[in-house]
Specification:
Structural class: mainly alpha
Number of helices: 6
Distance between the termini: 71 Å
Order of helices and strands: HHHHHH
Shape: elongated
Strand content: under 5%
Number of strands: 0
Number of domains: 2
Radius of gyration: 25 Å
């Protein structure tokens, strides 16, 4: 397994270029909630954190484009579209936390849908399995 520094050098050519790419994504407030220390900046963040940030921002930018659309998607999955308090609370969260919430909520929603389908499919299979037994019993009587 490569170290974060080796990955940065392979993909970006150096930490400075990765920081520059992240700053492009974070310049507009569409994705970024600024909680950063202005004296230190992104250049003083560890390589592993920078890689995670870059992957997260790239995925969110590709799938949703803005934080607002990501928040709307979370509310839709959680079935809380009309809950303005929930949206306001999510608005204060940083993008990595929102991305994690989205992935978790979509997994839960997928699991729930699969369980319901399995349950409905299981009941139908039981009915089909019960029907041939009755026919076999009727054939024995004849």
């Amino acid at each position: 397994m490569k170290s974060p520094l080796a990955i940065i050098k392979d993909k970006f050519g150096g930490k400075e270029k990765l920081v520059a790419e992240l700053e492009k994504l974070t310049k507009d407030d569409d994705l970024w909630v600024s909680r950063m220390n202005k004296n230190k900046g992104l250049a003083h963040v560890s390589n592993a954190k920078l890689l995670r940030l870059q992957e997260t921002f790239a995925a969110v930018k590709e799938k949703f484009g803005t934080r607002a659309k990501l928040i709307d998607a979370i509310c839709e999955i959680e079935k809380r579209v009309k809950d303005d308090g929930f949206k306001a609370r999510l608005g204060a969260y940083p993008v990595p936390r929102l991305w994690d919430m989205y992935k978790s909520a979509s997994k839960r929603a997928g699991r729930g849908a699969k369980a319901e389908a399995k349950k409905a499919g299981g009941e139908a299979a039981k009915k089909k399995a019960a029907a041939p037994k009755k026919k076999a019993a009727a054939a024995k009587k004849a």
